[in-house]
Amino acid sequence: APELDTYRIALVRGNGRWDYYAGARWAEFLPALVQDSLTKTLEESEIFKSVTTDQAGMAGDKILKTEIRAFQAEYEQDSHVPVVKIKLVASVLSYSHRTLLSSFEVHAERKAAGDRLTQIQAAFSAAFADVQKQMVSRLKSN
Description:
Order of helices and strands: EEHEEEH
Largest sheet: 5 strands, mixed
């Protein structure tokens, strides 16, 4: 979603309208933040001999492409406490043949403990940690 291609922390109001938390932003551009965190998680998982980002200029035998489909806090009608929703689609490709080896979706939801930004950020952290665990599990089984 183009609404997620930003530094700003997205929210969806009960009427389905996209907005952003005032004065709040990710430490990095969201796609870069997701890529860097997934790279670190995959390195630590030791599934592969080495893991690098596409900016590193190195080529391996497999490419993992991820698409961010959801990464926002959603408020239901008349609710003041959001549910954080994260969904990523992953595709594993053969580097040499440029063919799709597998594709899967990982997702998680976490209700924030309250409507303070620190509580919402904690829900994002928990949901993203869950998504990363799912990603490692799915890649191990491929």
